[in-house]
Amino acid sequence: MTAERRNPIRWVRPVLSLPALAVALAMTISPLLGAATTERIVIDPLTGVAIHGFDPVAYFTDRVAAAGRAELEFTYEGVVWRFRNAGNRAAFADRPDVYMPRFGGYDPVVLGRAVASPGHPQVWLIAENRLYMFHTRENRDTFAADPRRADELAQAKWPGVERALLP
Fold it and tell me: Domain span at residue 24?
């Protein structure tokens, strides 16, 4: 065996150069990282399900944050929504404008500062018959202190934030 073959580092050539590997890795990971903040509706970046699979109707009917079931899905605005029961799915299909979280599930307090921050489906509030989701409990409390004013601030900033979210 020649000296060159005995030294494995010299005869093994990398399949990808370091820059090519970095580009390939970035192309694989970037869709997963940005999924929750590049959509008009908050989705789970791993499953693509709206509001992390929670049933939007249950907030109104049961006053709880309840996970929906995979076998009870409905697609609306290009996003899959899950529901606890067929009645909730039918109610949403009939009136999604009533049951969808305001601002697509983004935190309205943070939106008031022109920033998109996905709300957490277990930190929520119904005000003026609309579902709001918040990034933190503190934001929910801030919103609850003056819901009308907080909604107005978020509404004023939402068009610009929404344009930035669209691909």
Answer: 3-33
